[in-house]
Amino acid sequence: MSDDYRAVNREYWDDRVAAHAASEDYAVARFADDAAYLSEVVRFDRERLGDLSGLDAVHLQCHIGTDTVSLGRLGARVTGLDQSVPALEQGRALAAAAGVEATFVESDLYGAVDALAGERFDLVYTGVGALNWLPDVRRWGQVVAALLRPGGRLHLREGHPMMWALDEERTDGLLVVKYPYFETAEPLVFEGDGGTYVTTDQVFTKNTTHEWNHGLGEIVMAVIDAGLELTLLEEHTTVPWAALPGMVDTGGGEMRLAEHPERMPATYTLQARRRG
After folding, report:
1. What is the pLDDT of residues 104-136, one digit of tens each?
2. Any idea where the domains of the chain sit in the sequence?
3. How many CA atoms lie less than 13 Å away from 272 in the CB half-sphere?
């Protein structure tokens, strides 16, 4: 497999940064207006994150930095890493407006160790919608382990691989598996319709993505094989966007199936600690 997926996906995200930053879904203005405001994704896992005071934290695949800034507001010395230059520029502007000290570094995920010049962290944080852009989840686990100090921990909340495997266009209420559950050598190539997952009138020109699913067992073993000790794995019926037709708002930015949400894990939270 070539590395073309990086360029294709980077163009896709670059094209959407301005619309995401302007959308009410990301609530960028609230960070400047309310000194206590946290992103909905960080708020969901607030108790699971614990005390971040004085910790060195890195947010991998940070996009426009709303979760990054939120971690800073919880007391962490925070660094955001992403391959999109426009997203990093927005992240810096957001941090400045919010009064949060944050460093933003340009790199794809697999180049993180070199881009961060060997720096080690107490917390590696990854938010929802990140792993599906990576072709090799075991290599991701190795990067995470290399970024952690002994005793440091990983916090991951991600879309559940069962949800990613479902047909997201069905409107009859059935949950039908359409895409691979397990990691595949070749990517799933999607040609989008010019839209995005936030509310916007903008029509985009870069709509091709290369994506991969990773089974929950593959993700867990990637963490364990990298030398980390699994400390938490919790599956959730909610997801922070309308991932499937017929989802309803449960409050706090979370959505779930309107009927029998117990049928499907929509997201999960995973935590692990580097031994020593």
Report:
1. 999 999 999 999 999 999 999 999 999 999 999
2. 4-274
3. 23
Do the beta carbons of residue 88 and residue 104 sit within 8 Å? yes
Which CATH number does 4-274 carry?
Answer: 3.40.50.150
Q: Does the predicted TM-score (pTM) go above 0.90?
A: yes
For 17-72, how does the pLDDT look when each residue is reduced to its tens digit (9 = 90+)? 999 989 888 889 999 999 999 999 999 999 999 999 999 999 999 999 999 999 99
Angle 123-133-127 (CA atoms, 0-180°, nearest 5)?
Answer: 35
What's the alpha-carbon Rg for the chain, to the nearest Å? 18
DSSP annotation of 262 reads: G
Tell me the β-bridge partners of 79.
58, 103
Q: Strand (E) positions, the chain?
A: 56-60, 77-82, 102-106, 121-126, 148-159, 188-191, 208-211, 228-236, 247-251, 254-257, 267-274
Sequence-distant (6+) residues with CB within 8 A of 69 are 31, 39, 78, 91, 94, 95, 98, 100, 102
What pLDDT is attached to residue 276?
81
Give the separation between CA 115 and CA 105, rounded to whole angstroms.
Answer: 7
Q: Which residues make beta-bridge pairs with 125?
A: 59, 155
Give the Cα separation of 265 and 158 in Å (integer): 11
